[in-house]
Amino acid sequence: MDAFSAFQIHDFELIQKIIKEGRPVIIAVNKWEAIKDRYKYKAKNYLMKQLDRNLGELNGHPLVFVSAKMGEGLHELLDKIILSYDKWNTRISTGLLNNWLDKFKRLENLPKSGEKELKINYLIQARVRPPLFVFFVNNKSLFMPHYMRFMSRNFAKEFGMDGIPLRTLLRSTNNNENSIKKSSIPKKQSPMKVKMEELKKLSLIH
């Protein structure tokens, strides 16, 4: 897009369609050579704030500043495309996911409602393209959308997922809250080692 006219309504509409399709997003800001050096820092911040305000679900700022006229930033753009494709196809181990989750829970306060407090027991990745992550929690009603967005941003930063659409699913460990039976996950088996066949039975993957 043109550095002098970003962002227009149709830009956001197009990006939202890409996100809805579950595709990675990279935004190339062209004519960057025409922006005077003393204004570039402010221009970058302005564009980032526009993304935050209109596309909070984008997770980060996948912006690449280029000059087609001068041939600048093109290698960075190609590298970003390849990296985003790789990230889109990446499967993160359950161990790494839950290491991050433990660190997140130590640093951040989990939501509360009266005497009820959200507990996130563990996290798994169910599929890729786009990445789908399943959170097993004690009470799904406490996991508000704004908190999920906050958590997704932290996650995207930790694993370098800027511009990658992340899908999330909540599953309750409380049998009264959903239809998952205790027999669905064998008692002798660690939650970290849930088999893909069992996830299919829970309709977590298709």
What overall geometry do the principal axes of the alpha carbons give?
elongated
Report the β-strand fraction as a percent range: 5-15%
Structural class: alpha/beta
Fraction of residues in helices? 25-40%
> What is the number of helical segments per DSSP (H or I, 4+ residues)?
6
Order the strands across the largest sheet as they lie in space: 5-6-7
Total strands: the figure is 7
The N- and C-terminal alpha carbons lie at a distance of 36 Å
Q: What's the pLDDT, averaged over the residues?
A: 85
Low-confidence stretches: 179-195, 201-206
Cα-atom radius of gyration: 20 Å
The largest sheet is: 3 strands, mixed
H-E order = HEHEHHEEEEHEH
Structural account:
The two termini are 36 Å apart. It contains six helices and seven strands. It has helices spanning 9-20, 37-54, 74-88, 94-107, 145-159, 196-201; strands at 27-29, 63-65, 112-113, 116-117, 120-127, 132-137, 167-172. The chain is elongated, with a radius of gyration of 20 Å. Residues 179-195 and 201-206 have low confidence and may be disordered. It is α/β, with parallel strands linked by helices and 206 residues long.
Keywords for this entry:
206 residues; alpha/beta; three-stranded mixed β-sheet; two-stranded parallel sheet; 6 helices; 7 strands
